[in-house]
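Hey everyone, long-time lurker, first post.

I ran two proteins through the pipeline my lab uses and got sequence/structure pairs for each. Pasting them in order. The first:
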Amino acid sequence: MNQKLVELLIAKGLRIACAESCTGGLLAGAITSVPGASECLDMAVVTYSNGAKHKLINVPGSLLETFGAVSHEVAVAMAEGILKLAEADIAVAITGIAGPGGGTTEKPVGLVFIGIATKESVAVIECRFKGVREEIRSQTVAKALELAYTTAKEE
């Protein structure tokens, strides 16, 4: 899917940007593994800590305090923040709990929010992936690539 995404973005003259938390740069790595990705990938940041989310992509501290980093609201703010910072056409934001620790009853391991922003809209998908840490991260990247591809087709 990464090859198809890069080819589509280039063909349509679209720029993409990524803000990642639990995937730690794996989405950007998947995109940049495709030759020519520099023609469409504008920027990618790993905002693993709340401080980085706030400082680098302007996620309001109040959202982080009220809803927590792993939330629909923070995924929206991350997607909007990286879209604005990069001045891209499409932004993908990922925040979640890859495990093995860190999960709660309310927010279990495998809970991931993927935000997709364009200049016109923002959408967030809530996912509940199963497996060990690397499987959750891999499933997250695959879903994010799929969502980005679908969004790029509509642009």
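...and the second, right after it:
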Amino acid sequence: MDTRFSSAIHTLIMIAGAEVPITSELIAESVGTNASYIRKLAALLKRRGIIDSRQGARSFALLVKPEELTLYSVYEAICGSEQVHVFDLHQNPNDECIVGRHIRPVLTDVFRGIGEKAAEELRSTTLADCMRKMRAEIDKE
């Protein structure tokens, strides 16, 4: 399963909430990955104008207000696609089997519908929404 999207949201929450300059090393430690992976995600986010990087300070800055940054915009930046991809189809169904011969169009339609609903949810959810939920989780402690 691809974790780039969730790692990007994690990264953006950290950047948005940072009171001091935050580096890819600090973000990577929180995400549980390496700094080069975070820099690759950051490059995709920067290309879309979501963040900026400061070479001298080796830190990042959010260029879009959390209230205006939808998760759909993050998805497009990270996954490079407007169509939300939720599930994969298995690659080699047996055409000699009646189910194998017809499963692809059936599941393609089902999965497309699920992707469209997921896209709607991502369009209506902002980074600020995620940050509020994060704050609520922290407050529970």
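Reply from user beta_strand_b:
Welcome! Quick read of the second one: The helical segments are 4-17, 24-31, 35-47, 71-79, 98-123, 127-140. Residues 4-140 form a domain with the Arc Repressor Mutant, subunit A fold (CATH 1.10.10.10).
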